[in-house]
Amino acid sequence: MYCHTLTDPSILSEELVKNGAHTLTLFAIHTPARLFEKDHDAAKAEVTKRILAGLNRYLKEPIESCLAVDEEGNPCIEVKTPQELAAEIDLPQGNIFHGDLRFPWLPS
């Protein structure tokens, strides 16, 4: 996890920079593609919920209270599943390592 905009705010509009906005990037590696095969959208929502809950375990206040919201009141979060990464940037099953993890990280 990292905050790109602490050192390089150029990815934000001038208005967002002036308002003190930042971006936070979290890579949830490796979330298996098979988790999203049955009900993609429900699994994506559940994974998003669990990632936020995991972050909240280490914070004094819920991360949700710090998130910008869009015009409809939805938090400005972008979540990409392995299937979406495969479709958008041609990563096999969304895996940045181009294959499943092997020993010693997974049992044979």
Account of the 3D structure:
- The protein has one domain.
- The mean pLDDT is 87.
- Helices cover 28% and strands 0% of the residues.
- The chain starts with 13 loop residues before the first helix and ends in a 19-residue tail after the last helix.
- The longest helix is centred in the middle third of the chain and has 17 residues.
- By secondary structure, the protein is an all-alpha fold.
- The chain is built from three helices and no strands.
Largest sheet: none
- Total DSSP helices: 3
Domain unit count: 1
Mean pLDDT score, rounded? Answer: 87
Extended strand count:
0
As residue ranges, the low-confidence spans are none
Short summary:
This protein is an all-alpha fold.
Q: What's the layout of helices and strands?
A:
Elements: H1 14-18, H2 40-56, H3 82-89
Tags for this model:
108 residues, 3 helices, single chain, globular, mainly alpha
